[in-house]
């Protein structure tokens, strides 16, 4: 199954595409979509929308996963990040992809084994879990970590959705 991981940010939204087959993970591509800080907020969000749309069109993932964001100290930054995160949730959904969200600690625990691992540890483990992967930048590394986390939880999430739907149809 081809999976898209997204690490939302207004300046840089990281993306990573992996394939998961059983317990085997394979790196396909990664990068970051950057917005132009000289543009208005709405124009920057369009840049993120267009960039994520292109990644989906080019790589045709089956599912997507997005890192949840917690409140920062600066409320204006938090609001802008939330808007970029909204684009990261919206675009895959508009393209018919199921979208899951994961807390940063769950991603870290899934990739490194510890919920409070540092960025260096996460990036090192991403490289180990996806051998031969040339990681474009820190945003792409974080997005690949999101995709890896989703690969670990995707089948459980699908089974839970299916069971919930079946329970809703029961007489």
Structure, described:
It is an enzyme of class 3 (hydrolase). One of its GO terms (molecular function) is hydrolase activity. It comes from Sneathiella sedimenti. Its cofactor is Mg(2+). Keywords: Cytoplasm, DNA damage, DNA recombination, DNA repair, DNA-binding, Endonuclease, Hydrolase, Magnesium, Metal-binding, Nuclease. This protein has 171 residues and is an alpha/beta fold. Strands 3-2-1-4-5 form a five-stranded mixed β-sheet. 53% of the residues lie in helices and 21% in strands. The longest helix is centred in the last third of the chain and has 32 residues. It is globular and about 45 Å long. α1 runs parallel beside α2 and α4 packs across α5. It has five helices and five strands, in the order βββαβαβααα. β1 and β2 form a beta hairpin.
Using brief descriptors, characterize the structure shown.
alpha/beta; globular; 171 residues; 5-stranded mixed β-sheet
């Amino acid at each position: 199954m081809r999976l898209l991981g997204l690490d939302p940010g207004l300046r840089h939204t990281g993306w990573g595409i992996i394939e998961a087959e059983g317990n085997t993970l394979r790196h396909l591509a990664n990068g970051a979509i950057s917005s132009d800080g000289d543009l208005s907020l709405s124009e920057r969000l369009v840049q993120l929308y267009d960039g994520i749309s292109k990644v989906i069109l080019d790589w045709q993932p089956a599912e997507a996963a997005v890192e949840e964001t917690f409140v920062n100290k600066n409320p204006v930054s938090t609001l802008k990040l939330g808007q970029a995160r909204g684009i990261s949730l919206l675009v895959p959904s508009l393209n018919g992809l199921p979208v899951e969200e994961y807390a940063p600690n769950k991603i870290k625990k899934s990739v490194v084994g510890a919920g409070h691992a540092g960025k260096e540890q996460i990036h090192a483990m991403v490289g180990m879990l996806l051998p031969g992967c040339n990681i474009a930048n820190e945003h792409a590394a974080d997005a690949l970590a999101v995709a890896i986390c989703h690969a670990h939880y995707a089948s459980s999430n699908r089974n839970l959705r299916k069971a919930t739907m079946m329970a809703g149809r029961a007489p």
